[in-house]
Write a structure and sequence with these properties.
The chain is α/β, with parallel strands linked by helices and about 290 residues long. It has 13 helices and eight strands.
């Protein structure tokens, strides 16, 4: 563990700072969002942080598939009172804990007040609150995704160097900023042929947002498209765990360091319970708008 990370962890412990919630989203599927979420979580875990990875893709839950895990319980069981949140936790590489989603039959927007309160209590009663909660959202611009992003402290947008990914990333930032008041985004360029290409891609995106939107973008890092990343996926492993010295592995490790160095955001001040309460509040506000 390097000195910068040790210093950051010590300061967080001394200050009693709560869980920092980071949401990872993308304008379209197929850009590697779940791979980014998983490797960021594992890299932070290897750095010594206590990390939970929440699979919030309620339509195509796949964090467990990516890591070759077989969950017995998921969030739907928690809401139904059939399991506690601790019961759902899966052990992952780097010491991370994974909260699997319920593919196809769990939707925050359809939870009644009792179900929402139960979910808030489940997160607040988690036996050991992590340093970081990484939320792997579904792809796209749905209100459910927006509410997860709105309730988190740090939104990360994943984009690839292809026209549809760039267009959809801009659309996501536009909708989330104008409709949900989210004005700061971290951006990860993924599967780039070179770091220079990743920087150019970020430049294209930021040029458009600077012209038409009142938002602030920051290029958090670039993940190269290398054979080790593909090999790790085939082995159902995180590349930072299987091939930490590969180009993609070292990039994820550097991004994890940069994430740890980000300033705390006021929206993280209440930890996990605050995150879930914000999620429920955003859900109720949305229902009020569409009623």
């Amino acid at each position: 563990m390097d000195k910068q990370i040790q210093s950051d962890m010590l300061s967080r412990i001394q200050a009693g700072k709560p869980t920092r919630v980071i949401s990872v989203c993308s304008g379209k599927g197929g850009v590697g969002k779940t791979n980014v979420s998983t490797n960021l979580a594992v890299a932070l875990g290897h750095a010594g942080y206590d990390v939970c990875l929440l699979d919030a893709d309620v339509s195509l839950a796949n964090v467990d598939v990516l890591l070759g895990l077989q969950p017995r319980f998921n969030l739907a069981h928690v809401v139904a009172g059939e399991a506690t949140l601790d019961d759902t936790l899966l052990a992952g590489p780097g010491g991370i804990r994974i909260i699997p989603a319920s593919s196809g039959n769990f939707d925050m927007s359809k939870l009644d007040a009792v179900g929402q309160a139960g979910l808030v209590n489940a997160f607040s009663n988690l036996s050991d609150h992590p340093d970081y909660l990484i939320v792997d959202t579904a792809a796209g611009l749905s209100p459910t995704v927006a509410r997860f992003v709105q309730a988190s402290a740090t939104p990360i947008v994943v984009v690839r160097d292809e026209p549809s990914s760039l267009t959809d990333a801009y659309a996501l930032i536009k909708v989330f900023s104008r409709n949900y008041g989210i004005d700061r985004f971290q951006v990860i360029t993924n599967q780039s042929i070179s770091s220079r290409a990743g920087a150019r891609l970020f430049g294209k995106l930021s040029k458009v947002t600077d012209s038409y939107l009142d938002v602030v973008l920051r290029h958090l890092g670039d993940i190269p498209d290398d054979r080790y990343l593909k090999k790790a996926v085939q082995q159902q492993r995180a590349v930072v765990d299987a091939f930490p010295r590969s180009p993609s592995g070292t990039s994820f490790i550097q991004i994890a360091r940069d994430v740890a160095a980000l300033p705390d955001n006021a929206r993280a001040s209440g930890g996990l319970q605050f995150f879930m309460e914000q999620l429920v509040m955003a859900d109720r506000a949305y229902k009020g708008m569409v009623a």
